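dude i think i finally got it to work??
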Amino acid sequence: MTTHLPGLEFRRLTVPSSMADEDAADFREFTRVRNLVYREIAGNDDDAMLPEELLPHYQPDPDEIRLAWAVVLDGAFIGRVGIDLPLEDGSRNAFCLIELMAAHHGRGIGSAGHALIEQAAREHDRSVLQSWAQHPDADGERLHAPTGFGSIPKDHAARFYLRHGYSLEQIERQSALDLTTCDDTVARLWDEAVAASAGYRIVQWQAPTPAEYAEGFAWMKSRMSTDAPSAELEFDEEAWDAERLARHDAKYVESGRIKLVTAAQHIASGDLVAFNELVLGTDPSAPSHQEDTLVLREHRGHKLGQLVKCAGLRTWRRDIAPDSPKVITYNAEENRPMLDINEAIGFVPVAYNGAWKKVLT
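look at this
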């Protein structure tokens, strides 16, 4: 697709089977520009990935359609456009991104990319577009989340979303934990959680999930789509089983990334009732990421969130990632129970993301 800007192209991304393939050059450049855009926004490389780490997440997936385009100007990659289409029955959702290097803002390129996204959403019968963007703090006018929790500056990204008919629905806090100074605090909170969680025990594994835990873990992953605070955003209720979980795990294994799952098991029933995930890429000295954490509603009130987080960090520091300097995680700003645990452990806010939604007419 081309626009009125001479030399501009939205090139459908070629996804190779392997980065050793002859057609891997576009994906390598696509990843490089992704990392540059994130560095421009955040001022660091905390979210950088190697092409080999990113590639498994772009392979064909029976659970979603992922469409992506490289934004190319005069032969040079300057950004990327993407849309994810969940394949849950009856889904009307689409999750989109438009990311450009800052030097190319204000030229209508993002708007052209958004037109491409809307076209793809309509072609797949999707009417709800949702997107997330980091909004570095700045002086001036602010936008407040309708949840009553958090605000962001009305910056370039916010103005873009508003101009294209989106509403701000939620603020997401990005937090970081200094792994080099947290051991004593984690040990104390671990002891506290153990004392409050009689009747439960910790089980841990690295991806892929062992067969004995697959059914229970798949059920908890399905509950992430319904139990996590989501304000007025829309998420399909996801159906997870052992096969879907295996496909999910394979993306980490094939990329060379490490994923540790720490779960709380109800001893009397054998059910898995809470979990936490820690992930590290192929560089052992890079930041770690805390991904999903959930305590099933019917088992809350026993400090199980604190239990799985602390147990995971103890194993992570001791056995898996002793050279990783920090852990990064994301929480809805209104998710006070999880934020309370994170803050007690030592996580501090480092950035805020806006969650944006548009309903197509």
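The two ends are 23 Å apart (CA to CA).
im so relieved honestly
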